[in-house]
Amino acid sequence: xxxxxxxxxxxxxxxxxxxxxxxxxxxxxxxxxxxxxxxxxxxxxxxxxxxxxxxxxxxxxxxxxxxxxxxxxxxxxxxxxxxxxxxxxxxxxxxxxxxxxxxxxxxxxxxxxxxxxxxxxxxxxxxxxxxxxxxxxxxxxxxxxxxxxxxxxxxxxxxxxxxxxxxxxxxxxxxxxxxxxxxxxxxxxxxxxxxxxxxxxxxxxxxxxxxxxxxxxxxxxxxxxxxxxxxxxxxxxxxxxxxxxxxxxxxxxxxxxxxxxxxxxxxxxxxxxxxxxxxxxxxxxxxxxxxxxxxxxxxxxxxxxxxxxxxxxxxxxxxxxx
Length: 322
Hints:
The chain is an alpha+beta fold. It has helices spanning about 5-10, 35-40, 125, 135-150, 225-235, 285-295, 310-320, and strands at about 45-50, 55-60, 60-65, 80-85, 90-95, 120-125, 160-165, 170-175, 180, 185-195, 200-205, 215-220, 240-250, 255-265, 280-285, 300, 305. Strands 10, 11, 12, 13, 14 and 15 form a 6-stranded mixed beta sheet that branches. Strands 1-5-4 form a 3-stranded mixed beta sheet, with helices on one face. Strand 4 (about 80-85) and strand 5 (about 90-95) form a beta hairpin. It is globular and about 65 Å long.
């Protein structure tokens, strides 16, 4: 196998869209009930529905989160509210809510701005790549922690009801007293290339026609991230990779994943064997074809790349520049 130093040594050129953050989380404030109550009236409140959508307005060509007043919820933070962070004396909170305005449906795989100045409820998965670092970090955190609460209402040890604590960042069991904290499931995502100008892309049967991405899979118990990369690539397309190298990570709270990005080298001469029922097709794609698709907004003849919110898109963009 002939290696290409430029391609083999590529790094992410920017942070993945949902890894950006600008508001400090301020862990110590979570235990200070008096200070939280003092800051509550001037706090900024983000409603989020169970599909991960939040109201967004517009600032020029960019979507911006439409924060609300805390006044309707009372003089202190209610149970179930999650403190997202604090900056310059302003707290940011999130609560579960139903949409109270237009909802953008059917946006496809890439976000587009709605043709209105009225706040529209939009999905993090699709709009996250268009938000500022501040808004992207806040909404990603809100979706992740609120989703955890949706699925963690009972103690995993004794089955009793749990109560939220620490401004939404822990639960306390009413039966056995067990404390629990937000869970994250690590998953690897790997850009496999040949050390030169080809990248391995694959598609799932449920995806829209021509949609391709890099390969990914969940980490199993007792398994290292690097071992998971080798196992998943072999299971999904039947090849063994080497030179596994860390690139970066991105939260993916759908419902609670952390995507850990890697690059690895594979041999294009090895026959590809897509996993039955999981991978519909896999193929090696030349760098020029990826570049052409990127130059056209992520779409080319027979090739639609992942959306701008995903770490997969950032990985492909960075590799294509090599």
